[in-house]
Design a protein that fits this description.
FAD/NAD(P)-binding domain; protoporphyrinogen ix oxidase, domain 3; about 450 residues; globular; seven-stranded mixed sheet; single chain; alpha/beta; 16 helices; about 35% helix
């Protein structure tokens, strides 16, 4: 029976990132992935001159940990910066309206009524409050009013996280905003102070992908020296022993058992729950209680001459009250080079999510028809798309509902009874690639402190 220091179960971005951080230390690491390919939902597809992303399309980074990761890994050389375009659009009364990202122009935007602008101005005088179960809708309404919720933060939550702001936990979904209230007592004051601090520290926020798409990141991580990657390995048994863990799996060579001093489960919550059922039924209950949102991504290749809009931005998000099936759309060929052939554009639109989960079951014709009806109205498109690809995620993003911080605290409490076992996946610490890399660093530090 093989003997290793750390076994990572799951070869998505979380597991691969944990492996990279651990590889910087002198310990033995294996990654077992049940699929025949690594990367999880991250997959870039090149076809007919278009480059589409099945899931994450870029990294939006403001964390020093991620900057360190990019620098020390040498992955900087493979990075492609997002185009320097400032416009972010919202659907407002059936048309697209640019939402400024700077505080004062944002407050003065015609998006808000006079009452909405006044609500912005009184925000610093709203008393701070701490409620672990406060939803995004409750938090934003309390601090900034209903207009900001309905027209800005609500669409962000539904369009980028596929979640429901009426159920999503504010402290888990909007950690930076809730932290501003805790620290400064005001969101607008906190944003201003942070802006000044960024100037002093030269902190940089940047958005980037990779040459060849996000799959390049997976391919680079899969070449991490000192880590053994095992695609096609499925864990079927996990037993606690005195000095570590006995792990049994189905492999291409047959059933295999190894001993690992520590184990990281970088799998979806329901998969982790199944593996841990014989060890702790209560822990399993907390994991199974984490919901996910199904969603579809409809990629459309269209002739540039067929679109009236200038596409001078990142894309758009849709407020719920607009009643459109598309929750958001990224203008991928405006963001990165080589995403579409010359004279063509690539638009990636999102259907489904927590508010309309049935959309993931729509067939191709219905999905494309729904998206095109929306885009023809907003962008002035004539004719049909020349290229179509649809990615469906029946178990998509985890939903941070209810007292989610309390749920995670209970999970951690149970993990203390299973020393050497770690959970690192997108149901804790954030769903973005940025968050997964940063969370992996924390997990690796915890592992190394026990080694």
């Amino acid at each position: 029976m093989n003997d290793i220091d750390v076994l990572i179960v799951g070869g998505g971005i979380s597991g691969l990132s944990v492996a990279w951080w651990l590889a910087q230390a002198d310990i033995s690491v294996e990654v077992w992935e049940q699929d025949t390919r690594l990367g999880g939902k991250i997959q870039s597809v090149r076809a007919d001159g278009y480059l589409t992303e099945q899931a994450a399309s870029m990294v939006l980074n403001f964390l020093p940990t991620v900057s360190q990761f990019m620098r020390e890994s040498g992955f900087e050389a493979h990075k492609t910066l997002r185009a320097d375009i400032a416009n972010r659009y919202l659907v407002h009364e059936g048309r697209l309206l640019s939402l400024p990202m700077k505080l004062v122009p944002m407050i003065m935007s015609p998006l808000w009524s006079r009452r909405g602008k006044l609500r912005f101005l009184i925000e610093p005088f709203i008393p701070r409050r701490r409620d672990a179960q406060e939803t995004v809708s409750e938090f934003i309404t309390r601090r900034l009013g209903t207009e900001v919720l309905e027209k800005a933060l609500g669409p962000f939550v539904t369009g980028t996280l596929a979640s429901d702001p009426d159920k999503a936990n504010a402290y888990s979904v909007l950690p930076r905003l809730t932290a501003l209230e805790r620290r400064y007592g005001s969101l607008t004051l906190g944003v201003f102070i942070h802006k000044v601090l960024r100037r002093r520290t030269a902190a940089i926020t940047e958005a980037f992908s990779f040459q060849g798409g996000m799959s390049t990141l997976v391919e680079l991580l899969a070449k991490t020296p000192g880590v053994h990657f095992r695609p096609g390995y499925t864990v079927i048994g996990l037993e606690k022993e005195k000095q570590g863990w006995r792990v049994t799996g189905k492999t291409p060579q047959g059933e295999q058992t190894i001993f690992a001093r520590q184990v990281v489960l970088s799998t979806p919550a329901n998969v982790a729950a199944s593996l841990l059922e014989p060890l702790d039924s209560q822990l399993t209950k907390y994991l199974r209680g984490i919901e996910t949102a199904p969603l579809s991504v409809v990629h459309l290749g269209i002739s540039r001459s067929a679109i009236r809009h200038s596409l001078d931005g990142t894309g758009f998000l849709t407020p719920r009250k607009e009643g459109l099936p598309v929750t958001g759309c990224l203008w991928m060929s405006s963001l990165f080079p080589d995403r579409a052939p010359q004279g063509k554009v690539l638009l990636s639109a999102y259907l489904g999510g927590a508010l309309q989960p049935a959309a993931v079951d729509w067939d191709d014709d219905r999905s494309v028809t729904a998206v095109m009806a929306t885009l023809q109205r907003l962008l002035g498109i004539k004719g049909d798309p020349e290229n179509v690809r649809i990615d469906r995620h029946f178990q998509g993003l985890p939903l941070y509902y209810g007292n989610y911080t309390g749920r995670l605290a209970e999970i951690d409490r149970h993990l203390k009874q299973l020393p050497g076992l770690h959970l690192d996946a997108n149901y804790r610490g954030g769903v973005s690639v940025r968050d997964r890399i940063a969370s992996a660093c924390t997990t690796a530090e915890r592992i190394l402190s026990r080694a």
